[in-house]
Design a protein that fits this description.
CATH topology: Pseudouridine synthase
Distance between the termini: 30 Å
Helix content: 10-25%
Shape: globular
Mean pLDDT: 92
Number of strands: 10
Radius of gyration: 18 Å
Order of helices and strands: HEEHEHEEEEEHEE
Low-confidence stretches: 241-253
Number of helices: 4
Length: 253
Amino acid sequence: MEYRNLTEQEYKDLEGRILFEDNHLLIVCKKAGEIVQGDKTGDETLCDKYKAFIAIRNSKPGKVFLGIPHRLDRPVSGITVFAKTSKALERLSASFRDGQVHKIYLALCIAAPKEPHALLENWLIRKEALNKSFITQEGRFKDAKLAKLIYTHIGDTDRYHLLQVELLTGRHHQIRCQLAGIGCIIKGDLKYGAPRSNSDGSICLHARSITLPHPVTKENITLLAPVPSTWKGVSALLQPHPASPGTNPADSY
C-alpha cells in the first residue's frame, strides 16, 4: 500500500473533521500543531494523513492526489482546503491569489483593543531567518508589503479578549503581527510577545469561516469550523456567529 495504515481512532478523527468533500474539494478542520505541508522537521503532514485516509476509505492501491492551494501556520487551527484534482488546484490557487476567497479568523488576545472595530493597514517586512514579520514604514524596505485587515472586538472571557478578524490581504504572519502592533497579542504567541506559551504549543488563532467559489461549479461555498474546546468561555460569546446568523457555534473539537 502506498500510505501507512491508520489506527481506527486516527481514521475516525480524520473522518470527523471533514467539513466538505466532493470529487474536486476536501475541506477539513486542522488542529493546532499539525503542519499542512512538509517542513524541515520531517513530521507527518495533515495532507499525508488525509491521503492515507482516502486510500483506506476508497480502497485505492495507488497514489492519492491532494493539492495545497493555501496554508495555515503550524500553531494555528481551523479551516484548511485541499484540491483533489490538478485542475481544481490550479483554479483554487487562482481564487486565493486573486482575493476571491473570504476568510474570517478568531483571535483570543491578552489585551482588548482601544477601538471596538477598525481597519488596520501596515507595511510588513518578513525576516526569513527569524520566520517573523515586522511592521515598518512605507518605502523603507523595497520588499515590504501592504497588509490590511478588519477586526471587531466580540467580547471578553474572564481573562482574555475575543476578536473577529477579516483578512483583506494574505501576508506572512499578518494577523499575529498586526494585532501585536496594537497591543492585542494573541494568547500563547511567544514569537509576537505573549508572556507565556499554551500548554499544547498552540496559539489562540483559529480560521473560523471561509467562503470560496467552487472550482468547477463556480457556486460559493461557505463553511464554519468548530472552535477548539481549549478556548474556555468563547462559545458563549459567539451567539450567533457574526458570519453565519442562526448557526450554533458551540460545537468544539
